[in-house]
């Protein structure tokens, strides 16, 4: 198996500065949606475990991933409670749903594509934690930086499993999802979410 790409080589673009500005203007939504994202990540891992019971490597990696994501969920909730932020329902961003529209419906292609989507979600999450950290208060900076190692490993786990499931190079599929992911990250959104695009035009300086 060839060496996995570095996270920043995997993503085609950086998060725009205008998204960071929006995050700082919506601190409560940032934490609430972050909690939702951690819960959804755990659910995705568990769903894969139930669907592909014959794949031992997947079962082990997804079991560990689900536990870690639920732990992160608990940590976000604890921070929210300390800050008097109520955990409430939020409509999801279009990000994950639009990526999943590219997932093929026959196996093993369905599994391969689902794992590629997981890799992009984890990679972008890691990139955004790192982007945000310098601008946050001490508690959140420390927390977000603490997530980088696990989120980076989750990206690598998803991509490794995708390569194993395909049994052949997946460069073309990764490139397809990468272009879609870049478009979603740079496209304007009308409401802020952890995986939303910017709320204002992306400039050359972004």
Description:
With 206 residues, this protein is mostly helical. The chain has a single domain (16-186), classed as Ferritin (Up-down Bundle). Helices cover 68% and strands 0% of the residues. The radius of gyration is 17 Å and the shape is globular. The termini are far apart. This is tRNA-(Ms[2]io[6]A)-hydroxylase. It comes from Spartinivicinus marinus. GO terms for molecular function: tRNA 2-(methylsulfanyl)-N(6)-isopentenyladenosine(37) hydroxylase activity.
List keywords for this structure.
206 residues, mainly alpha, Ferritin, 8 helices, 68% helix, globular, Ferritin-like_SF, Ferritin-like, tRNA-(Ms[2]io[6]A)-hydroxylase, tRNA 2-(methylsulfanyl)-N(6)-isopentenyladenosine(37) hydroxylase activity
List the helices and strands and how they pair.
Layout: H1 7-10, H2 17-25, H3 27-51, H4 56-82, H5 95-100, H6 109-132, H7 138-166, H8 171-186
Pfam family, one: MiaE
Organism: Spartinivicinus marinus
Protein name: tRNA-(Ms[2]io[6]A)-hydroxylase
């Amino acid at each position: 198996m060839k060496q996995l790409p570095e996270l920043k080589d995997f993503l085609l673009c950086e998060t725009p500065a205008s998204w960071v500005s929006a995050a700082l203007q919506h601190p409560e939504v940032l934490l609430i949606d972050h909690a939702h994202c951690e819960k959804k990540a755990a659910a995705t891992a568990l769903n894969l475990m139930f669907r592909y019971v014959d794949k031992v490597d997947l079962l082990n990696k997804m079991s560990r991933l689900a536990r870690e994501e639920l732990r992160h969920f608990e940590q976000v909730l604890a921070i929210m409670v300390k800050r008097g932020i109520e955990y409430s329902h939020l409509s999801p961003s279009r990000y994950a749903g639009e990526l999943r529209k590219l997932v093929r419906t026959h196996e093993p292609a369905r599994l391969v594509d689902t794992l590629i989507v997981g890799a992009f979600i984890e990679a972008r999450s890691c990139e955004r934690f790192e982007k945000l950290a310098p601008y946050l208060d001490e508690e959140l900076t420390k927390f977000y930086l603490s997530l980088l190692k696990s989120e980076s490993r989750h990206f690598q786990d998803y991509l490794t499993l995708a390569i194993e499931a395909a049994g052949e190079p997946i460069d073309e599929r990764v490139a397809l999802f990468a272009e879609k992911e870049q478009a979603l990250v740079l496209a304007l959104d009308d409401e802020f979410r952890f995986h939303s695009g910017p709320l204002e035009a992306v400039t050359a300086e972004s």
